[in-house]
Amino acid sequence: MTAGIPASENPVTHVARMPARAAGFAPWPEWSAPEVVAACTAAGVGNPWRHQVEAACLAHAGRHVVISTGTASGKSLAYQLPVLSGLARDAKTTALYLAPTKALGADQLRSVSTLDIPGVRAAAFDGDTPVTERDWVRAHANWVFSNPDMLHRGILSAHSRWAQFFRGLRYVVVDECHSYRGVFGSHVALLLRRLRRVAQYYGASPVFVLASATTAAPAEFASRLTGLPCSAVTEDASPRGARTIALWEPPLIEALSGENGAPVRRPAGAEAARILTELVVEGARSLAFVRSRRSAELTALGARRLLSEVDPSLTETVAAYRSGFLPEERRELEQALLSGRLLGVATTNALELGVDIAGLDAVVLAGYPGTLASFWQQSGRAGRSGDEALVVFVARDDPLDTYLVHHPQALLERPVETAVLDPANPYVLGPQLACAVAELPLTEPELAAFGGPAARAVLAELAEQKLLRRRTSGWYWTSRDRPHAEVGIRGSGGDQIAVVEADSGRMLGTVDPGSACFAVHPGAVYLHQGSSYVVDELDLETELALVHAEDPDWNTSPREIVDITVLSTERQCHHNGVTVSLGEVAVTSQVVGYLRRRPSGEVLDHTALDLPEQRLQTRAVWYTVSAELLESPTGSGHSVGTGARVAGAEGPGATAQAGEPAGAAAHPVRAGNSRPAADEAAGEPTGTEARRAGTEMHPVGTEAHPAGNEARPAEAEAHPVKTETHPSEIETHPAGTEARPAETETHPAGTEAHRVKTEMHSGGAEVLPAEAEAHRAETRMRPVGTEAGIPVGTGIAGRAPGGAGLIPARVPGALHAAEHAAIGLLPLFATCDRWDIGGVSTAWHEDTGEATVFVHDGHPGGAGFADRGYAAIVPWLAATREAIVSCECPAGCPSCVQSPKCGNGNDPLDKAGAVAVLGTVLGALRQHGEKCGHGGT
Ligand SMILES: Nc1ncnc2c1ncn2[C@@H]1O[C@H](COP(=O)(O)OP(=O)(O)OP(=O)(O)O)[C@@H](O)[C@H]1O
């Protein structure tokens, strides 16, 4: 695969081999219904694997259980066996199956229906179920396949029509439960509590059977999600072929320079196309996972083009995942791959779930899929018993990907993360409690399931709003209208902005109101099911965005101004000049214009916009560094380029910063992003989504924004996020696309970027104890000290930390760069997408009185990400610093400190300064025994 690549450009940073595993069997449990065993055997499952039997027996015995094993390990049988046996034995028994996507639900329904067990009447009840069939399902189906959205709007809201179904409810299956994270996860957690309450009302207390990709602490997570004590089955006894995993960092392209003259790497999608070509030529059946549908098309196209040069007869063996796969199309694809008619398929993560493809020869992942669970789920598609399989992880231009290819242990040896959710978020609790009370009056003893005191406070507020009434016996819904339609469980709630095609009147999707100015501002490019639209008008009052179909060869990225205010500080620790805090903040932002950029990164123009200010009240983690510590020399006596100028530091903004440090406070640097960043697969069935890519017109740079369009480094297109918010289950794609940061335009700062290299010194690059090992690993892979001009191995464990040695003019760029990278790395600790979070950095903040870097949740009320950041502050910032140091670029590029969505055009950014600041902050935290946080995952 690396044939033809000069040794000096070898993109492979690490190779690992995972041994084969033999199957472990267990006998069919004696309680299994013979007809179920017969049907499974006929379907090819002769003997169940041990973990299947273990989980099935727990469920049968009435214990809530989560099965958390690898890809294609037969998790379905673990719940099918007890459920089907129960249904076959007792005519009154019923079961509910919930999937995060309609497609997965349809797949599972098909698999159950194929077994054709007498007495089992399985049926779907989702947005696609025709109204004429719904009555039949309610009256006759004994296994209902649905999704959380439909449970919320279509089942619980009208539970009396489901009385018979609820009376017999013995099992609730929650499939792919690890996808219930963030705000969506918090909603689903409360939704399941509502389900339990309603079931109880009809006299049922169902057993919950959850299936999950491998995650850390699955029992804990399942218990948090259901509110019930759950056992976990994690010993995977399915057979697996041996796999070789290669980590691949695309080389820098000499001839191209990006934003501010930064170097540019070969796009991961193009690299994946090349690898896929090689694999197809070798006759290997392969899947390439990319981050967006457009990228899937481009990758398949690229591979076909390359194949036409090598062996034209092979071009037809490569296909792209097409949007909106129907179950039959999935089956066709599975068959085509199985039979060898197709050898290579480029796909989004929509094929991660609900597809029975395993035992492939190779899987290519272009870009980190966001979570380790997804990484293993996708790479698990490769591996045939008896044969070697290959997994290639290709890094995108992104700090997290850079970190991972240089720290293989973080990818290959870390326990899979626990999904983060926060059912106590008042923004989620409020609407959920309103629905709960509207379903059935809520009594005092029931409060505990909804968070006790937090629920009480929210109920008091709802009572004040006259939505419900408090009586001695509990809380009662007063309105005749049900609140359900107003509550979007995949977003932050509130009235959604409808995105409508003006000509046809067709509703394409909905956008969260908080994201509308970013996602569907006038002029924005809006993607829906792979098609492109341009927004003509956004009317926030009538909650309408009018669009027309157009596929321009440019993307849009909004620019915004932003401010952040600390509302309360909940936790705080001080460490000699460094303070780390966790609390509530108000982020105000205003989209003031947008850039049109070509996919190459070339900026066409800037258009001003007049849109209202948005306010986001959420949670943030922030750290401050005293001026003394920033300026004082490093512990080793070296200064970090005192007097050095960073790229962009001479721009207008930087000059203002340099001259008036206090002025920086008025113009904080906004970084980050946000929004319900459900995986593409998660949003597959329906959904809306939006992304912000923010920007700021103020001197100091900005990164993203709550939900925005943004430049996606490798694919030059927006990263799809979806939210399921509408009963009709319309699927939408992230509004907006945006250019890749790899700008081809020449930037005056580009020349400066190289100057910085010679001015960097070792100071601030102190290596902290826990990082020493990482450094050693890194040293093995690349000669340290030749990268980025930043020597990295100078630290001494336990030494008193020094200052950052920065002159005031460098502080904004250093903090800005540290913030960009920190946002990129938080997903490693908080199971969020970098789009779920945002950030602001400033050389002086009026609430803290010091240089401050904020990283905040992008959802109202927070989704638990900032809390994870606080808990894992030391490993998080250490990884951030490592990611920057690992990148060989001289002065900052998208692989380390540049953000694709930086509103300020990544200016100023001071890579060496960021390393110095992070080294100093870590030094202070470590010196005080890491009392802040708990050390992370
Ligand atoms: N005991 C078994 N023996 C042989 N094949 C089995 C056994 N159990 C399941 N299978 C087969 O393994 C394949 C994968 O099963 P299934 O889809 O249930 O796995 P999964 O763990 O849910 O997969 P995913 O990781 O995609 O969610 C199916 O084709 C199924 O028929």
TL;DR?
Pfam families: DEAD, Helicase_C, MZB, WHD_HRQ1. This protein is 31% helix and 20% strand.
Your description of this structure?
By secondary structure, the protein is α/β, with parallel strands linked by helices. It has 5 domains: 34-233, Rossmann fold, CATH 3.40.50; 249-413, 3-Layer(aba) Sandwich (Rossmann fold), CATH 3.40.50; 426-477; 492-551, no CATH class; 553-631 and 803-931, no CATH class. The protein contains 28 helices and 30 strands. Strands 1-9-16-15-12-14-13 form a 7-stranded mixed sheet, with helices on both faces. A 7-stranded parallel sheet has the order 4-5-3-6-7-2-8, sandwiched between helices. It starts with 11 loop residues before the first strand and ends in a 10-residue tail after the last helix. The model is unreliable at 636-800 (pLDDT under 50). It binds adenosine-5'-triphosphate. Residues 44-45, 47-49, 71-77, 356 line the site of adenosine-5'-triphosphate (ATP).
Q: What small-molecule ligands were found? A: adenosine-5'-triphosphate
SSE-based structural type: alpha/beta
| Proportion of helical residues | 25-40%
Strand order of the largest sheet: 1-9-16-15-12-14-13
Q: What would the principal axes of the Cα set say about the shape?
A: globular
Tell me about the largest β-sheet: 7 strands, mixed
Give the strand tally: 30
Terminal CA distance reads 35 Å
State the low-pLDDT regions, or none. 636-800
| Radius of gyration from the alpha-carbon trace, in angstroms | 27 Å
Mean pLDDT: 77
As a percent range, the share of strand residues is 15-25%
Domain count, please report it.
Answer: 5
Tally of individual helices:
28
